[in-house]
Specification:
heterodimer; A: 273 residues; alpha/beta; five-stranded parallel beta sheet; 13 helices; 5 strands; globular; B: 435 residues; alpha+beta; four-stranded mixed beta sheet; 15 helices; 14 strands
């Protein structure tokens, strides 16, 4: 990620770094997390120049922007062009959330016939312009950092911005949800209750939220850095889950992210053989 | 700086600000006559109704929550209720109240977001809340405090504010603990004071003297409560029907002048769902402090001025706070966090009052619980024809105003309805179908 603009630290006249927030195919939840920083929002507005954030303000300033936060996935040819323009205007570009980092729930189309889907939902599919796949931002332009989660946590977002302001490089956790879950003192929902849980293969960051509520992790932070998806898939199969059920488990909010994508495919392929 | 429009022109507001999602406004004027008025949605389609096919019936609440980050609980609730209806399961009263409590959190959060961050800047003459805070920090801080209380309530019951994890078909994954509920009670009690102050603040804004004639549609629960998480559908023309008959009354019609399909209620010209409809059809159901605040604000038993929707929304924050407090104070635990739900082949319908109005879900599932068909009708899709009708009226009345002033008027007209374009996206066909 680019360092904080030097003028922000040493310039005679302090120039606030310019922040922009962009939306592609998504639910708005990740940018809402920015507005959910109720205690910090006004202080933040004094540290950065919120130059482009149409959900929050009609006043927009032209680029270039020091930091662009990008929500949503690319699903149309127009958006594939628009993200290039956003990249060109941005010193640092950070994707926020499962859609922008992996394609989101709408990437389930990647495993289906999108023409058939269009005709299912729309009376006149010929007027719908959409790409066959929902792809993450990184499939189109270089991305400086990716924040995970469906949605991203508000504290994660704040940390990202303050890290950027301090000119430091942000880091994602390298461990899985299981590690956080142990630290939270939870009884393992998979071992003790036999629930399906993606904790072993999902990136930490949520604080093991779902197991803390007595349900299995559904992988909304995406695959952890080191995973063994085929082993988990085999284990789920052993416990009596059907092929279709195992596919459903991996094909949720980060379905298009490797190895969730091919982990489940490999399992299917194996079954077919 | 200002330009006077010619007799023929195409008027566009390319990026609507302070709405949820991405939309644009396009109005064509020919020989001084207003032609097409279109609220365009350029959110790309995400095909939820298609991607739900083949999924388990238990997955619908988590999946459909992702349609909208602002009102996920509405999607979770309507989908749960549709599934519970197919499977012939009735939620025990404690769990129904817990569901309502979670929903109150969403109303407080969503309404506070709209009133303070999206809508109030229009009345006070600022481009956004951050700019507004430079001169009126106390006002914005009050709004943020309210919003935070709504989020705290959603977190206490649902696990997190955006896409809560604790909701399931048949109830919840676990019951909130007494200490979690006790902690949030203080936030909600303070929010009630802030909400009453919000009604006073918004009632003091200047409102243009306009009234619309749209019919109203809202839920009305059988148990005497203000409509939030359930109810039968009632209309201002006296028609009443259950969720099961939604599609018999709400259809898509080809409107010749706009060459587009519009959601249509029976033979009514245009109808509205949302705060104005709920308030006007359920004034008798308001909680005591909400009614007192409405009376003090000079709202009658019904309200037909879309600009005053900000006051009605504020009254509904009072309502949600009072409801939440009443549920919290009477909470005595529940025997189980959820009731078992066994899948059963059939069709189920679910409705609830999203902050923006009636949200309808219909699912057809097989006997092993696989979703075979899904249909979702969000409030913004239903309101779109009425919003466009209002826009037409605004443009016709103020056609001689400079374009920049007219553009602002139009944007305000749209923001009066708090449209959520992320939700309405799958109704893209409404906008672009041609003969």
């Amino acid at each position: 990620m680019a360092a904080t603009p030097s003028s922000a630290r040493t310039g005679a006249r302090r120039r606030l770094p310019k922040l922009a927030v962009w939306k592609f195919a998504s639910c708005d939840g990740c940018q809402l997390s920015l507005l959910n920083l109720e205690d910090e929002l006004l202080a933040l507005a004094g540290e950065v120049d919120i130059a482009y954030f149409t959900e929050a303000s009609a006043a927009t300033k032209p680029g270039p922007y020091d930091l662009s936060l990008v929500e949503g996935s690319i699903t149309t040819a127009d958006d594939a062009e628009r993200i290039r323009r956003v990249r060109a205007m941005s010193k640092a570009l950070v994707t926020i959330g499962a859609c922008a980092t992996s394609g989101g729930i709408q990437a389930l189309r990647n495993f289906a016939d999108v023409a058939e889907w269009t005709s299912l939902v729309y009376a006149h599919p010929d007027y719908i312009s959409t790409l066959a796949e929902s792809t993450p931002i990184s499939a189109h332009v270089p991305v400086d950092f990716e924040l995970h989660g469906c949605p991203v946590g508000r504290d994660q977002l704040l940390k990202l911005i303050t890290t950027f302001l301090a000119g430091r490089t942000p880091k994602n956790p390298t461990e899985g949800v299981c590690a956080e879950c142990k630290r939270a003192g939870n009884v393992c929902v998979a071992v003790a209750r036999g629930l399906v849980c993606l904790g072993p293969v999902t990136q930490a960051g949520c604080g093991a939220l779902c197991p803390s509520y007595g349900r299995g992790c559904f992988g909304c932070y995406g695959p952890a850095r080191i995973t063994n998806v085929p082993a988990l898939a085999a284990k789920l199969h052993e416990t009596g889950l059907s092929e279709r059920d195992v596919r459903r488990v991996f094909h949720q909010f980060t379905a298009a992210a490797e190895p969730f994508r091919s982990g489940s495919e490999t399992h299917d392929d194996k079954a077919r053989r | 700086m200002t330009t006077k429009p010619d007799a023929n022109y195409l008027f566009r507001v390319a990026n609507l600000a302070r709405v949820e999602g991405e939309g644009a406004l396009r109005i064509r004027v020919r020989d001084g006559e207003v032609g097409e008025v279109e609220l365009q949605i350029f959110e790309p389609p995400r095909f939820f109704e298609a991607l739900l096919r083949g999924r388990a019936f238990t997955e619908a609440p988590d999946i459909t929550a992702r349609i909208c980050g602002i009102c996920p609980v509405a999607y979770q609730t309507s989908s749960c209720q549709a599934m519970e209806q197919v499977c012939e399961v009735e939620l025990p009263e404690e769990l129904r109240r817990l569901r309502r409590l979670l929903y109150c959190g969403e109303w407080i959060e969503s309404h506070a977001l709209h009133v303070y961050l999206l809508h109030a800047p229009d009345f006070l003459g600022y481009p956004g809340a951050v700019e507004l805070a430079k001169d009126h920090r106390d006002v914005v801080e009050r709004g943020l405090r309210l919003k935070k209380a709504g989020n705290a309530l959603m977190t206490a019951v649902g696990g997190r504010a955006v896409h809560p994890v604790n909701v399931r078909v048949g109830g919840f994954h676990r019951l909130p603990t007494l200490s979690e509920l006790r902690a949030v009670r203080a936030d909600v009690a303070r929010a009630l004071d802030d909400a009453i102050a919000t009604v006073e603040i918004t009632a003091g804004f200047d409102f243009p003297d306009v009234e619309h004639s749209h019919d109203y549609l809202s839920l009305r629960p059988a148990n005497g409560e203000y409509p939030i998480e359930n109810g039968v559908i009632v209309a201002s023309n006296g028609v009443t029907f259950p969720a099961d008959d939604f599609e018999a009354h709400i259809s898509e019609q080809h409107v010749a002048r706009s060459n587009a399909l519009h959601a249509k209620f029976d033979d009514v010209d245009s109808y509205l769902v949302g705060p104005l409809a709920r308030y006007s059809l359920n004034y008798d159901r308001l909680s005591p402090l909400a009614r007192a605040a409405a009376q003090k604000a000079g709202l009658g038993r019904s309200c037909h001025n879309p600009f005053r929707s900000i006051v009605v929304r504020s009254v509904e924050i009072v309502q949600a706070c009072e409801d939440a407090l009443s549920i919290l104070d009477s909470w005595d635990g529940a025997p189980t966090a959820s009731v078992p739900v066994k899948p059963r082949a059939g069709v189920g319908h679910g409705v609830s009052e999203a902050p923006r109005g009636i949200l309808y879900h219909r699912y057809q599932i097989s006997d092993d619980g696989t979703i075979e068909a899904a249909r979702i009708v969000p409030p913004t899709s239903q309101n779109q024809p009425a919003i466009e009708a209002d826009l037409r009226q605004v443009v016709e009345s103020f056609i001689d105003l400079p374009e920049e002033v007219l553009a602002l008027r139009c944007e305000q007209t749209i923001r009066n309805y708090d449209p959520c374009i992320s939700c309405a996206t799958h109704f893209l066909d409404l906008r672009i179908e041609r003969e």
